[in-house]
Every structure is written in C-alpha cells, then in structure tokens.
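To the wet lab folks,

You asked to see what we're planning to order before we commit. Fair enough. Below is the target structure as tokens, and below that is the sequence we designed to fit it. If anything looks off to you, flag it before the synthesis order goes out.
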C-alpha cells in the first residue's frame, strides 16, 4: 500500500470547515503532475483519498493516468480517529494508494515516522498491523537543485 501525504498547499485557513477547500499551491500542483511518473513502477488498483481539496488535487493526475476513480473517505481527514483510519486501511488491498494528511500519518504510526508534503510511505501488512517499510520523497526532490529553483520560480 502506498500512503501518500498531500502535496504542498496554500496557507492553512482559520476554520476547519474553510480549510477543507484549501487548494494546492504552485509547488504542490507540480508534484501532483509528476506523481504518475514517480509511481509508474507500482501496481495501483484503487485510489482512496481524504475528501479535502488538497488531497483530491494531489491524486487527480494519478487517477487520470491510471483510469481509476478516486474514492473519498472521511476516515482519512485530519480529524479522523486512529481507530477509524486503521479500520479503513484493513479493508484496502496492498495495491491501493491512500492520500491523507500529516496528522493522520502521525496518528497511524504514533509519531514514529514523518512524511514531507507530497511524500509517500510504502506500507506493508504484517499480521493485523500496517508497517512503513520504505519512503519515497516528493517527486520534486528528484529535480536537481539548480532546476528546482527554476521550477519553483
């Protein structure tokens, strides 16, 4: 399973309701466009996402490139309980991409792993547990530093 933190987004909005509509910023849109190439060697049968705009925008290019419909799940929202998120993950196949938020990643792994915006953890099932086994940095981190400045500007 690929556990993806949404790409870079505009500044946090003051109310949780308004923040649900927060969109990706320029860097985030760039990472989202590069996501299909970054994950091209991974089998992906399902794409499951938090319903927040920044998550949906992150996986939209991947969904289009694979011809897969995005499934929206509140269990992946920042305020979801650890229990509800774990229950959802237990139902998903190893070939799923799951797009969520920093808060969810921290809850799932009790703060033992971090994830940059646009970063992805390869997570394996070990018995009833999900264990992070490999980290894939955001697609923009593969751009040489000199080019990265030009892309960001």
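Sequence we intend to order:
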């Amino acid at each position: 399973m690929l556990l993806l933190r949404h790409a870079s987004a505009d500044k946090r909005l003051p109310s949780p309701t308004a923040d649900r509509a927060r969109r990706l910023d320029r860097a985030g849109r760039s990472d989202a466009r590069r996501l299909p190439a970054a994950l091209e060697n991974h089998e992906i049968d399902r794409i499951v996402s938090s319903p927040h705009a920044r998550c949906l925008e992150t996986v939209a290019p991947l969904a289009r490139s694979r011809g897969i419909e995005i499934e929206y799940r509140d269990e992946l929202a920042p305020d979801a309980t650890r229990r509800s998120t774990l229950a959802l993950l237990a139902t998903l196949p190893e070939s799923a991409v799951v797009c969520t938020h920093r808060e969810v990643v921290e809850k799932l792994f009790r703060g033992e792993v971090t994830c940059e915006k646009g970063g992805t953890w390869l997570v394996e099932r070990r018995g009833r547990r999900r264990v992070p086994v490999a980290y894939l940095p955001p697609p923009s981190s593969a751009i040489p530093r000199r080019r990265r400045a030009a892309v960001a500007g």
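Structural context that might help your review: Residues 144 and 150 are 10 Å apart (CA to CA). The first strand starts at residue 2 and ends at 5.

Thanks,
Computational group
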